[in-house]
Amino acid sequence: MLFIILSVSMAIGTFIENDFGTETALSLVYKARWFEILWLALIVNLTGGLFLYRLWRKKSVLVIHLSFFLIFVGAFLTRYAGYEGTVHLREGEKKDYMLSYDPFIRFVVNKGDRTVTYEEKFFVSSAGGNFFGKVVHINNSPVSIELIDFLPIVDVDLVEKENELPAVLLKIKEREKDFKRYPIKDGTVLKVGRVEIFFNKKPDTDRPYIHLYTEDKKLKIGSKYTFLVFDTDSGQKERKNGYVQVEKDKLYAIGGLVLAVDKFVLSGDFHVKPILKPVREDSDLSSLVFRISYGGEEKFLYLLGKGISYRGIPNRIRIKDIYVEGVWGSKEIELPFYLYLKDFVLRRYPGSDKASSYESYVILIDKKERKEIPYIIYMNNPLKYDSYRIFQTSYDKDEKGSVLSVNYDPGLIPTYTGYALLFLGLFMNLIRRMKN
């Protein structure tokens, strides 16, 4: 019965994924608690049957049951200790972190010098059934965080509102991409590509960054790194160091990023409007809507993102004497090695612009052993290192960058051992029957 229920559940999950997307199937079926309980019941059932019927008397049946047990152990390790994500590299760039495939919701509650952080993995279902509620205590005061809505596609703007934080609406363009709108609140950090954007917060990174801050009710921009300022009217550009006052007809570029300030308010909030579209585009954002309750007062917190493999846009609100910052999206996971992209090669079919294959010439640098492993990653030829598997996934349109998929799976060995035992048990059972 458990095998039948499991098979039907996975069949339903396949239909859900086809109609509503991968994340909905993960939320309602594959990552759901009831699905975990179903697997646990199956393990208990098989283990109990092993002793109840004394299956060790038949070696072939014993081996088959042991193989299932090893496969379940491997699946457990993969699910709870494994992870996967992506690494985007430009030629000549190295990284020791990846962006997780799984999305998280993270809240930071601050009151004076006291800070409380809460984080959990969270898959969103576009078919409904999204539940989240948490009460955190700071200085013995309860702060209630409750998910009240999910908006699949939204349009984002800024509105002026009294007694709120300063906010900026940016238009940002990455390499080979169109301009996109990003709202950012006072005291938060937005990361786009390789660049971190700090707004009224002291930069604390060695990576390329842009620092925005308010002074005398005006907005200034700058960095310790050299950045370019483009005048859209005259077409002139000049290199800058330090800080300059933001002007609406100027573009600012650093680390392969071009940004412009579309709107700036000294006191305002995100204006999130749901929109209906027949087809979702890559640039479309979704929003989780949370109700934050503290000291008899309530406010809404809109967390913008896309879920799987997307960083998310942080938002921050103030209620009385506390600040609540939230973000919904993937997070950076540190790797025990560096990946350096030496070269990216795209090969085409003769006489055509269509890609026949693409290769990433990388160097893996182990942090502990300090050894370097050169390798060529291409389709069906992943880089295997310890329990990591690194695959070629995609590439930049200008053919100067590569997107690699990183998979860490500690359950690989017990799973493969389980499959080997399963075939051995079936073979032993076949021989036993032939003898009989």
Describe this structure in words.
- The protein is α+β, with helices and mostly antiparallel strands.
- A hairpin with a 3-residue loop joins β1 (83-90) and β2.
- 22% of the residues lie in helices and 51% in strands.
- It folds into three domains: 2-82 and 413-435, no CATH class; 83-97 and 333-408, Tick-borne Encephalitis virus Glycoprotein, domain 1 (Sandwich); 102-329, no CATH class.
Number of domains: 3
- Would you identify the regions where 5 or more consecutive residues have pLDDT less than 50? none
Residues in helices, as a percent range = 10-25%
Order of helices and strands: HHHHEEEEEEEEEEEEEEEEEEEEEEEEH
Find the structural class using helix and strand composition.
alpha+beta
Number of helices: 5
How many β-strand stretches? Answer: 24
Taken as a percent bin, the fraction of beta residues is: over 45%
General shape: globular
Topology diagram in text:
Elements: H1 2-20, H2 22-30, H3 33-52, H4 59-81, E1 83-90, E2 94-100, E3 104-111, E4 114-121, E5 133-138, E6 141-173, E7 180-185, E8 189-192, E9 195-199, E10 209-215, E11 218-231, E12 237-245, E13 250-254, E14 257-274, E15 285-294, E16 297-305, E17 315-319, E18 322-329, E19 332-348, E20 355-366, E21 372-377, E22 383-385, E23 388-395, E24 401-408, H5 412-435
Parallel strand pairs: 9-10
Antiparallel strand pairs: 1-2, 1-24, 2-19, 3-4, 3-18, 5-6, 6-7, 6-14, 6-15, 8-9, 10-11, 11-12, 11-13, 13-14, 15-16, 17-18, 19-20, 20-21, 22-23, 23-24
Helix pairs in contact: 1-2, 1-3, 3-4, 4-5
